[in-house]
Specification:
The chain has about 80 residues and is an all-alpha fold. It is about 55% helix and about 0% strand. It has a domain at about 1-20 and about 50-80. It has two helices and no strands.
Length: about 80
């Protein structure tokens, strides 16, 4: 059981770290030489939203599952006594 939990945590960390890195450097603010830099021509180089969302949801689900199984184990032990 401990190796299963370790494997699940490792998998979530691996995929979570993979999605949290940016795809590349942003374009320079001045634009390329010879191009006009107007408001209509600019792209929004803001921070990406949701890079770690999957990781947070997965860790929340794992925490909820652990709490559920721990409470189920306590109830089963009380019934045996």
């Amino acid at each position: 059981m401990k190796t299963l939990i370790t494997a699940i945590i490792f998998t979530f960390l691996l995929f979570g770290a993979q999605t949290s890195f940016p795809q590349g450097p942003p374009e320079p603010p001045g634009g390329a030489q010879g191009s006009e830099n107007t408001e209509d021509n600019q792209t929004g180089n803001g921070a990406p939203i949701g890079g770690g969302t999957f990781f947070l949801i997965a860790m929340g689900a794992a925490y909820g599952a652990k709490k559920f199984f721990d409470s189920k184990k306590i109830v089963t032990e009380e019934m045996e006594d």
